[in-house]
Design brief:
about 40% helix, two-stranded antiparallel sheet, Arc Repressor Mutant, subunit A, single chain, DNA-binding, 2 domains, nucleus, Homeodomain-like_sf, mainly alpha
DNA sequence: AATATCCCCAACCGCGCTGCT
DNA sequence: TAGCAGCGCGGTTGGGGATAT
């Protein structure tokens, strides 16, 4: 049995107060991010470290964009979701000032519905068709080296989409508002190079993560 | 104006990954 | 190599505001 991340009896839960926010901001300004487990005590907060980290990353961090997503941000999220599935942190990494939580919430509350209304299955980015098994071999877990976490979403099968596009009038209608010329993966010209903001000088450079996608360019993610 | 329902989003929870001993 | 601690991620929840009746 895993130990809880903190002694929950002594921690506040729920919405953060302005005083708590200020304590967290002050502490991180003078000591920097990190050591989340010991941070609450050091900062005089009755919160668990996880809660502090989340509050900082999702709300208090400087340079966060608040408010509505621009149209180009929406398009980018849809395209990246088609490629990466529910890898919200990777998707958010391509949207300056946006957090994974924000992107995830926006997807679930707006973009999912938008795709559904357009007749597109938001889980696999297909146009309302069941995907034959042999055409979804290159799923997210195969394409992106990571653990067994991803279970909700099949990435976009570009060859399937192309064949649909040739034969189905519905498709051009449904995808028109997504800018057809860029929505189809083979033409997608996304630079998905990702860099770690702060790498210590003594650290070895990480090996790029290779995303291989049938009929699509190889993508390298430096993480 | 009051009540019900819907929807958004901040926050929580559990689990996997990584690094250290 | 195993065990542990800490961090990060994705899924889920619930409070509260917005909207409908």
């Amino acid at each position: 049995m895993r130990k809880p991340c903190c002694d929950k009896q002594d921690t506040n839960k729920g919405a953060w107060t302005k005083q708590e926010d200020q304590k967290l901001i002050d502490y991180i300004r003078s000591h920097g991010e990190g050591c989340w487990r010991s941070l609450p005590q050091a900062a005089g907060l009755l919160r668990c470290g996880k809660s502090c980290r989340l509050r900082w990353i999702n709300y208090l961090r400087p340079n966060l964009k608040r408010g509505n997503f621009a149209e180009d941000e929406e398009d980018l999220i849809i395209k990246l979701h088609a490629l990466l599935g529910n890898r919200w942190s990777l998707i958010a990494g391509r949207l300056p000032g946006r957090t994974d939580n924000e992107v995830k919430n926006y997807w679930n509350s707006h973009l999912r519905r938008k795709l559904i209304n357009m007749g597109i299955d938001p889980n696999n980015h297909q146009l309302g068709r069941t995907i034959p098994n042999h055409q979804v071999q290159h799923n997210t877990d195969d394409a992106v080296s990571s653990g067994p976490k991803s279970k909700a979403c099949q990435p976009y099968a570009c060859d399937q989409f192309k064949s649909n596009e040739e034969n189905n009038d519905q498709i051009s209608n449904a995808t028109s508002c997504l800018d057809d010329s860029t929505y189809a993966l083979p033409d997608l010209n996304l630079d998905l190079t990702m860099t770690i903001p702060k790498r210590q000088e003594h650290e070895e450079p990480k090996t790029p993560m290779r995303l291989e996608h049938t009929n699509s360019p190889t993508l390298l993610l430096f993480i």
